[in-house]
Design brief:
By secondary structure, the chain is of the alpha/beta class. It contains 8 helices and 10 strands. Helix 2 links the parallel strand 3 and strand 4.
């Protein structure tokens, strides 16, 4: 069988032995590189929009790092759900890429104040949820982009850990905040299979495309990490042994 998995550590190797409970079978329509690129990112997008905050048709959603691996999947998934997706990105190239992947509006955060632009785009009403994987640089602004009772979902910290956060920061609008991680959402075999099946179905139907994948040799892993830290990448990067 062709199979794929996602675990916390241990991916940088040529061969690996795993218990079958960690593996899911791949549909024929999903090739190996696509599978490698979407197990972590795609399952993250799946749990964010179905469970962390179950997105409904008509919702307005802000996604930071919209041209990243998770961001490109989220834009398409949100559009398929009938939501309005607003993204942020850090260059003209990334803005255009995000627009092609489901976002109705994309804000270049290097040139514009994303809080002011979100208010303008939404007519001052704000968003039901913000999906924020940037962390330190964006969290305060993210809270300001929410509607009353809105949800701040911080699932990463590419700019550094969030510091000085206090529960009282949520008082402006009776907001909610959470720090979800994928492995709690696939902790059981049944959850892993259910979420993987949803992801694979959306990929094979064409509703969500994983079409922005850079392939690099495994020996270039250090250089790839440097590119990631410098925010020079778009989409997903797959290391080929």
């Amino acid at each position: 069988d062709r199979v794929a998995y996602v675990l916390r550590t241990g991916a940088y190797r040529e061969r690996r032995t795993l218990g079958a409970a960690h593996l899911v079978k791949l549909p024929d329509a999903i090739d190996d590189a696509t599978a490698a690129s979407i197990m972590l990112k795609g399952l993250t997008a799946q749990y964010l929009v179905t469970s962390t905050y179950p997105v409904k048709a008509g919702d307005t959603v802000l996604v930071h790092a919209a041209a990243g691996g998770v961001g490109l999947l989220l834009g398409q998934w949100l559009k398929a759900l009938g939501a309005t997706a607003i993204g942020t990105a850090g260059s003209a190239e990334k803005v255009e890429l995000a627009r092609k992947h489901g976002y109705s509006q994309v804000i270049d955060y290097r040139k514009e104040d994303f809080v002011a632009r979100v208010r303008e785009i939404t007519g001052g009403s704000g968003c039901e949820v913000v999906y924020d994987s940037v962390g330190h640089d964006t969290w305060r602004g993210s809270l300001k982009c929410l509607k009353r009772f809105g949800m701040f979902a911080n699932f990463g910290q590419s700019s550094g850990l969030i510091r000085d956060f206090a529960l009282s920061d949520l008082a402006a609008g009776s907001l909610s905040a959470c720090r979800p991680t994928l492995f709690d959402y696939i902790a059981t075999r049944a959850e892993l299979e259910r979420r993987s099946a949803d992801l694979f179905a959306r990929l094979t139907s064409g509703e969500v495309r994983a079409d922005t994948i850079a392939r690099r040799p495994l020996r270039d892993a250090a250089a790839v990490h440097a590119d990631l830290e410098a925010r020079r990448t778009v989409g997903a990067t797959v290391l080929i042994p």
